[in-house]
């Protein structure tokens, strides 16, 4: 899709974004990001179509093998999704260079999600943003209050709030904040870290991790997040996408 006007997150109110996480060519959900905990939900294009038919206004795509291995192992499967859908997409996992990111943006991805690359080389955010303003989402995954990288396996020695300030100055369009402590457990969200991050930065915060109920969706909206990525709760039928969208209007 790729239209700069589509890059504004939360422009039309809080957004519930379905996750399409791909591992070995299949859509899966992991518990706390750990391999071996995955549950499969079919092939990517089918999953993407399911959420668009259900009313999704954007999709969150992740190459999980890329996140762990550093290379986009599921590029073909994810490219098929990007070509198939007509809603904005954001993609992360294995994007390590500015040229990789620009190539994806030119091929129709609306926002690229940078995690490890942004931590290791912060200037990459400015380099991409100069050519594609608003297109970079910096992924700040936190465990015990510290940003973690390399598929959530290594601490980066910086807090999410300090990191968000750094990337805002470098031109990031948004922050994707994943609380690894609650990710994939379907046991609820931790709103205070989200609230603190929202207060620490002027750019939109997309929350991820732990959403299990409609109350969790409301809580993240109340905490000031611009959007929430939801995976397991939708795939497991804890609630429907329409119910989540309606809950925000009540």
In short:
The protein has 250 residues and is of the alpha/beta class. The protein has eleven helices and twelve strands. Strand 8 and strand 9 form a beta hairpin.
Describe this structure in words.
- Helix 1 packs parallel to helix 3, helix 4 (98-106) runs parallel beside helix 6 and helix 9 (214-222) packs across helix 11.
- The two termini are 31 Å apart.
- The chain is α/β, with parallel strands linked by helices and 250 residues long.
- It has helices at residues 44-53, 64-69, 75-84, 98-106, 116-120, 123-131, 160-169, 191-200, 214-222, 232-235, 241-249, and strands at 15-23, 26-29, 39-40, 59-63, 89-92, 111-114, 136-143, 146-149, 154-155, 174-179, 205-208, 227-230.
- It is built from eleven helices and twelve strands.
- The model is unreliable at 3-7 (pLDDT under 50).
Chain-wise SSE layout:
Layout: E1 15-23, E2 26-29, E3 39-40, H1 44-53, E4 59-63, H2 64-69, H3 75-84, E5 89-92, H4 98-106, E6 111-114, H5 116-120, H6 123-131, E7 136-143, E8 146-149, E9 154-155, H7 160-169, E10 174-179, H8 191-200, E11 205-208, H9 214-222, E12 227-230, H10 232-235, H11 241-249
Parallel strand pairs: 1-4, 1-12, 4-5, 5-6, 6-7, 7-10, 10-11, 11-12
Antiparallel strand pairs: 1-2, 2-3, 7-8, 8-9
Helix pairs in contact: 1-3, 4-6, 9-11
Cα distance, first to last residue? 31 Å
Give the mean pLDDT. 88
Radius of gyration: 16 Å
Q: What is the percent of helical residues?
A: 25-40%
From the spread of the alpha carbons, the general shape counts as: globular
């Amino acid at each position: 899709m790729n239209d700069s006007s589509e890059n504004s997150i939360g422009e039309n109110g809080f957004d519930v974004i379905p996750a399409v996480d791909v591992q070995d060519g299949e859509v899966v959900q992991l518990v706390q990001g750990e391999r071996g905990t995955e549950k499969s939900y079919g092939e990517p294009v089918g999953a993407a179509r399911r959420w668009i038919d259900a009313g999704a206004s954007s999709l969150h795509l992740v190459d999980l093998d890329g996140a762990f291995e550093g290379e986009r192992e599921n590029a073909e499967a994810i490219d098929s999704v990007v070509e198939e859908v007509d809603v904005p997409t954001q993609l992360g996992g294995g994007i390590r260079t500015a040229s990789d990111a620009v190539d994806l943006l030119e091929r129709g991805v609306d926002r690229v999600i940078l995690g490890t690359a942004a931590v290791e080389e912060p200037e990459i955010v400015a380099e991409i943003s100069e050519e594609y303003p608003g297109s970079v989402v910096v992924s700040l995954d936190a465990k015990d209050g510290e940003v973690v990288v390399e598929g959530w396996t290594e601490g980066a020695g910086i807090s999410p709030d300090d990191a968000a300030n750094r990337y805002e100055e470098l031109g990031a369009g948004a922050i994707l904040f994943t609380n690894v402590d609650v990710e994939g457990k379907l046991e609820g969200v931790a709103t205070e870290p989200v609230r603190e991050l929202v207060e620490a930065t002027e750019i939109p915060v997309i929350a991820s991790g732990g959403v299990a109920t409609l109350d969790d969706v409301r809580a993240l909206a109340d905490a000031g997040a611009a959007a929430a990525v939801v995976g397991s709760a939708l795939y497991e039928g804890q609630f429907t996408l329409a119910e989540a969208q309606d809950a925000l209007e009540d």
